[in-house]
UniProtKB/TrEMBL annotation:
Record organism: Stephania cephalantha
PROSITE patterns: FE2OG_OXY
Domain Fe2OG dioxygenase span(s) in chain numbering: 187-288
Protein name: gibberellin 2beta-dioxygenase
GO BP, one annotated term: gibberellin metabolic process
GO molecular function term, any single one: metal ion binding
E.C. code: 1.14.11.13
Catalysed transformations (reactions): gibberellin A1 + 2-oxoglutarate + O2 = gibberellin A8 + succinate + CO2
Annotated keywords: Dioxygenase, Iron, Metal-binding, Oxidoreductase
Enzyme class per UniProt: oxidoreductase
Length: 333
């Protein structure tokens, strides 16, 4: 009998087995502490006519960015109907056979699977994704027969971009800077939408869907399904994030931590696979242009100045050499 499901997924098992010769599965895992619910913030508070209510909402966002590096938002302005449409189109996209996804030139040739720089199972991600630059999302030539996917991704990207810029502005203003401080540096060529698929994993529930990492942007907006699997580091221990169907997840990236001089935290997080159920998510990344200079918003600075291009290049070199990202530690003074 032909296993049609295995034909649609990338050769993750083959790659995992080849890496397992260099490492023992599970040796990299930390003990899970508990399931948690991230801080939930109702963004309607930002529109309140009550000044104190607006201030409370801003304070809650800033506190979550400082203490957790992650939070959830309600009343974020993106309809559940649009998000459900995005999910349906995303599932249909990933159900396509692997060879077609890998070779069709879809979505600006942005298809990726696993992480080919991995040197062991501890550095391997059991997942596949499309990374779509914002300036390509409206390009009809990128979609082929997936015209309905184009409409959904375009609407979601625009909505998530608006939300990301709103929250970045709130966090900047909280530190005494203009709300539009990032408007001139973040553009459509570097901001992107990533569609993720985590296939069922027959190996072990201790396999990474996405290896532990921090995001290399200012801010990320995440729409995930209800399967679960997202975990983050809190007080030196891993905690599992309880899915909440009413919210979107927001997390701080490396650039915001550097710019805020560590007022806001870019927290290590990961995704764990599921042996029985596949998982989908969509994430929007607010990034600056490659020549944008990232400096701390106050002195004395904890970090030397660097451009986004220099940061990305350093990450590429570190991953190529060591198999993993080193990140902001490279730029400490």
């Amino acid at each position: 009998m032909i296993d049609f499901e295995s034909q649609r997924d990338p050769p993750l098992l083959d790659r995992f087995n080849s890496l397992s010769l260099n490492s023992q599965c599970g040796e990299h895992q930390n003990k899970l502490m508990q399931e948690c619910e991230l801080p939930v913030i109702d963004l309607d508070g930002l529109k309140s006519l009550d000044v104190k209510e607006r201030q409370r909402c801003v304070a809650a966002i800033a506190a979550a960015a400082s203490e957790w590096g992650f939070f959830q938002v309600l009343n974020h302005g993106i309809s559940s109907e649009l998000l459900s449409e995005m999910r349906r189109e995303q599932v249909r996209l990933f159900e396509m056979p692997f060879e077609r996804k890998a070779n069709r030139g879809l979505l600006d040739n942005s298809y990726r699977w696993g992480n080919l720089a991995a040197k062991s199972t501890a550095q391997f991600s059991w997942s596949e994704a499309f990374h779509i630059p914002l300036n390509k999302i409206s390009d009809e030539a990128c979609y082929g027969e997936f015209s309905s996917l184009r409409e959904a991704t375009k609407k979601v990207a625009v909505s998530m971009s608006k939300l990301a810029r709103l929250l970045a502005g709130v966090l900047a203003k909280n530190l005494g800077h203009p709300e539009g401080v990032f408007d001139g540096v973040c553009n459509e060529s570097t901001c992107f939408l990533r569609l993720n698929h985590y296939p069922r994993c027959p190996v072990t529930a201790e396999t990474f869907g996405l290896v532990p990492h921090t995001d290399s942007d200012f801010l990320t907006v995440l729409y995930q399904d209800q399967v679960g699997g997202l975990q983050l580091m809190k007080d030196t221990k891993w905690v599992a994030v309880k899915p909440n169907p009413s919210t979107l997840i927001v997390n701080i990236g490396d650039l915001f931590q550097a710019w805020s001089n560590n007022a806001y935290k870019s927290v290590v997080h990961k995704v764990m696979v599921n042996k029985k159920v596949e998982r989908h998510s969509a994430a929007y990344f607010l990034c600056p242009s490659y020549d944008s200079l990232i400096g701390s918003c106050k002195e004395p600075s904890l970090y030397k100045k660097f451009t986004f291009g220099e940061y990305r290049q350093q990450i590429h070199e570190d991953v190529k050499k060591t198999g993993h990202k080193i990140g902001l530690r490279r730029f400490l003074l």
